[in-house]
Known about the structure:
Elements: H1 2-14, H2 24-27, H3 42-45, H4 47-62, H5 71-94, H6 98-126, H7 129-148
Amino acid sequence: DGPSEDTEFKDAYLIPRNIMAEPDYIEDDNPELIRPQKLVNPVKTSRNHQDLHRELLMNQKRGLAPQNKPELQKVMEKRKRDQVIKQKEEEAQKKKSDLEIELLKRQQKLEQLELEKQKLQEEQENAPEFVKVKGNLRRTGQEVAQVQE
């Protein structure tokens, strides 16, 4: 007798019941009752809010949503983009053929030679006048020696 009463008592709590009472106005169509109405939000009815909301919706449709990301997130995204670009460049270099690699090496050597020539010219232009005259005298001396031979 005791154990069966305990299970009935526990089952009564497990059955879901409506805790809130049903409102009277749903069943009765009594015209004397005041029906509840949704309250008006003064912010949403304001003209400024409506204009702003319309503009935000239009921008979102166009894909011009405002960027409200924190600066740290922006920096991390930029680093990730840069890293992806760098990886793509490395993959592209790995895929280059032997001919392309050899041509790049030659191009780099030529650029180095041009830089060295430019440095020599700048050094000669920036050299003092007596060094330039001495160089000219040597050249003329060598030319005279060649002509005499």
